[in-house]
Amino acid sequence: MAKNKFNILNARITFKNVPVHKITNYSFKDISTASESFKKINGVSECIIIQTASRVEIFLVSKSEYFAVEKIKEVWTSLTELEQIDIDHWDQTLEVYMNTDVYRNLLRLASGIESVVVGKEEILDEIKNMSSSAKQAGNSGKILDKLFDSSIRIATDIRNSTGIGIGIKSIGDIAVNLAEEKVGNIGSKKILLMGTGETAAMVAKCLNKQNHGFDVVSMSIERATSFSKTLGGNPVNFDDVIGFSKHDIVFVATTADTFLITFDKINKVMKKKKKGTLMMDLSEPRTVDEKVATIPGIKLVNPAQIAEMIESSTIARKSAISTAEEMIKEELPIIVATMNQLGSEPLVKA
Fold first, then answer.
1. CA of 335: how far to CAs of 104, 170, 198, 329, 341, in Å?
2. How do 277-281 and 298-301 pair as beta strands?
3. How far apart are CA 26 and CA 42, in angstroms?
4. DSSP character for 331?
């Protein structure tokens, strides 16, 4: 078989290696302009960027046998608002894949297996939209267009065959729906989201989807602001809201090792507060003292109650996930053969 006249690289930053609130640091303000910048790297001819709240992935085609990864980092850094600590830890956060591994990863991504919530349909729509935009802007070409078109078609078949996207409920969906059951029309309530991690991101997405406004608080206003840029919400100072005197619903989704919300703090506030407060502890380990539930006016939902609902949803989909994994193994050689055939043809015809 003739040797390919190109190589494909996938460089990515995802929620698996970087906290969700910091993904925005790696994101590009203008994806088309960023793609054009990556194409200026010696040997690079095509570029597609997939950018969401939980990942930034760059797909590049080069006629060169080796990619200058350091050059990719250099261009990436110049286009974003990375802090020095982010730059110093590129080696721990940036994942780089080549050729067959790229094909496999793209199939897993489009099928929903790589999502924060496995099976979510949104990522496939985002891949379709971003690959289409790259094509219209002239940043992708024959090779990436073929790879993405094939991967989208196969992923669609996998989703339809396995039902991996049916009945999905993230912890955010469950928490927001449960809040609706407990207090009714939460859109008319003052909502606070504590935390900026994966769980908080899922709650924020669900609140946004239902057009509910909310405040976001973290241990630093900078972190809350960074989170809100990507996932919405109004960033507020921790010291201004810790008593929850102005909020009706509080989603607590932090990763602290100790109780952030104690009986004494909340008891003082509730003695003066006229309205009740629904508090949903989504943290693991829990960060709301269970004694808080004994305070008049407080309704507390603890992590065990949420976890039970999540478990029932996950068990129902384990078979679909396993089947999707097997289908990807079967389809991968077809993608490889397709790309090899494409690579053996002249890239420029007279």
1. 9, 31, 32, 11, 10
2. parallel
3. 22
4. H
Dist. CA 223–CA 32, nearest whole Å? 27
Q: Is the peptide bond before 285 cis (omega within 30 degrees of 0)?
A: yes
CB 294 within 8 A of CB 270: no
Between CA 67 and CA 47 the distance in angstroms is 13
- The string of DSSP letters for 65-133 reads SS--HHHHHHHHHHHS---HHHHHTHHHH-EEEETHHHHHHHHHHHHTTTSSSTT-THHHHHHHHHHHH
pTM of the full predicted structure?
A: 0.76
Q: How far is CA 221 from CA 25, 229, 234, in A?
A: 15, 12, 11
| Digit-coded pLDDT (tens) for 194-205 | 988 888 998 999
Count of CB atoms within 10 A of residue 239's CB?
9
Written as one letter, the residue type at 196 is: T
Q: Contact, 203 vs 169, CB < 8 A?
A: no
Sign of the CA dihedral with 12 first, then 155, 201, and 319 last:
negative
Of the pLDDT bands very low, low, confident and very high (cuts 50, 70, 90), residue 75 is: very high
Angle subtended at Cα 19 by Cα 99 and Cα 329, rounded to the nearest 5 degrees: 30
Instruction: Name the strand (E) or helix (H) holding 58.
Output: strand 55-62
- Alpha-carbon distance values, 12 to 17, 50, 94 (Å): 10, 9, 6
pLDDT in tens, 95-126: 999 999 999 999 999 999 998 778 878 899 99
